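Each record in this resource describes a single protein on a pair of labelled lines. The shape at a given residue is found from the number at the same position. The record below illustrates this layout:

***
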Amino acid sequence: MAFGMQFGEIKMDLTETGVTLRDLYGWPGWVIEVDIDWSTWSARTVRDIPPPRTRSNARRPTDDPELVRRIRKAAEAAKELPRSSIWVVSLALPTPHKKKANGEQLRAATIATMYNYALNLGLSPKRAISEVYDLPLVEAEGERAQPSRKFERWIEQARKTINPETGKPYLQPYVSELHAPRRWPIGRGHPLEPRRAQPAIPEPVREGPYAGRVLTLRVLRTAPPDWAAQEAREQGARMVGPDLIIEGRWSNGEEPPSLPVLRGVSPGETPRRVQALVKELEGRYPGAKVTATVTAQAMGQPPSAD
């Protein structure tokens, strides 16, 4: 059985053994198979299958280490959909690293697409592009992350290079109201989320007996029954627990309120159900600010091995 998704021209299928990708940029007709260790969701073997009538000595996708790295990341990140699609989209675009005919224009188009796509996913374009294309990002505690000079050069190029189809630059001049990353209302703890960004939804004026207090929620997922988890492992799959556990903490140290267990919530439904709970609690405690972080484990990802 396979579960299929499509991002632009790229087709991705989750199968019993891993991930299959088709129609990567520059490799029409090639099929890429990535074996996945489901217990850790880590990529193992990467194989490429050529289209019919391909010469035996033809260059292959797996000959390109930079491409293989992004293929592995795209396969491993499939557990984080939709935000992981930033990796899959990169496979539908020419790499900005290599020199080629019409290179500046191709690079500008790639970077502009990745920048805008990251914004749409609630990610930091600076973090996303640096991570996808393996660029250094220097971070000091309490300060904004400093990107590499190559990143800055690519962004400048994308803002100056004219798209012949529109007559405008591929990446529009920076306007903070339009182009600054924004924090989504329900944090997912995603490594590419912006750290110091303004919220996507402006903060309301809060009035009421709980004004000035913050109730912080942390969302976890129950473990699946042992028998079901074992059965899934025998079939080369993983099973996630059915229910969400909500932990709460008041900013003033008071005893947290009694919080419900959300029963029968799939990973895909989790953000919406948590958002509904946040609104319910803000109504129960007038004036309070309620924030929530959905852990990666609650979104169905395997727990980190420390």
About this structure: Residues 103-120 form the longest helix (18 residues). The longest strand covers residues 27-37. The helical segments are 65-77, 85-91, 103-120, 125-132, 149-160, 176-179, 226-234, 270-284.
